[in-house]
Amino acid sequence: MSVTNLIRVRPQWQQELAQSITDPVELAQQLELPQGWVEQHLGARKLFPLRVTQYFVDQMERGNTADPLLLQVMPQADEFTQQPGFVTDPLEEQDNEHPGILHKYKSRVLVILRGGCAINCRYCFRRHFPYQDHHFGRAQLNQLIALVEADANINEVILSGGDPLMANDTQLDTVLTALEQLPQLKRIRIHSRLPIVLPSRLTQELAKRLQQSRLQAILVLHANHANEITPALMNALKVWSNAGITLLNQSVLLARVNDDAVTLAELSEALFAAGVLPYYLHQLDKVAGASHFSISDEKARNLEQQLRAMLPGFLVPKLVREVAGEASKTPL
Ligand SMILES: *Cc1c(COP(=O)(O)O)cnc(C)c1O
Ligand code: SF4
After folding, report:
1. Is residue 288 located within the same domain as residue 142?
2. pLDDT exceeding 90 applies to what percent of the chain?
3. Are 73 and 58 contacting, i.e. CB atoms less than 8 angstroms apart?
4. Which of 158, 216, 219, 277 to mutate to test the pocket of ligand 1 (most atoms within 8 A of CB)?
5. Residue 279 CA, closest ligand 1 atom number
6. Taking every annotated instance into account, which residue ranges of this chain make up the domain Radical SAM core (predicted)?
7. For a pocket test of ligand 1, which of 91, 94, 104 has the largest count of ligand atoms closer than 8 A to its C-beta?
8. Domain boundary among 45, 80, 115
9. Quick check: 6 pLDDT over 80?
């Protein structure tokens, strides 16, 4: 088989991924942003590289340096600001005895299936630990199986990352097939931002595979703004909800991106129109280099209160933060 044939059989989403944008100057040119503005921020890419899909850029507004999607991915001079309390490993997860497997909550175990992501979000703790090389192979799968079998409390496995949907459908099938053999498991959950930045990742084949599974499947998306809910995403999600997959979303509260009640209400409405229920609204993890995204707990609580008045209860996400050592996410 020739090289061109090999390239042709790669799924659409992998081809799109290979064409991601990593140069801030190119991004700025596409979006017609002022050159002086770009130069002012360029240095921050050394802290954490720019990475974004063309599809996500296509949802941004031209000429708008305050675009809520742009702010999530564009390196910013503010990232050099050091704030007390903002550290490289806020969740104290770095020296785990089983790398890639986190069993912090009684009934569910989370695995880092793939270290990489389709985009680099500026507010993410991954900026200090890109774990690009992390690969969940046969040895880790065997460790996971042993861990589940040794603890009858575990009934759900969460595939996370990085981004678990960076794995291809064959790799996911292998993991799923192994987990289906464990009678104590009821559910399989996928935490992914990939559909938001690359809807073509929501393949029909994977939806079908999950539909056929003995395990109930849940997909938890990560969208932060209504502009991330596009017709392309809604079409792709329809196939997944028709396959009986429960669709949820988690967001992070981010200054200037979504820190007002109207913006958050629009996000909830857009999600529901796409068949997705809001699940969590996270107060930002205190990550070094991301302090300019943070808002006070008082403001966060006030936003939640406003949302409760504006929306039906089922469209109000739970406002939580992650506290190292707690038995669950902690309500604010
Ligand atoms: C967030 C998280 C979970 C999932 O928590 P839920 O409240 O069930 O959504 C599980 N394990 C770890 C390590 C987590 O950080
Ligand atoms: S883990 Fe999620 S929030 Fe962090 S960079 Fe990847 S996609 Fe973005």
Report:
1. yes
2. 87
3. no
4. 158
5. 9
6. 103-326
7. 104
8. 80
9. no
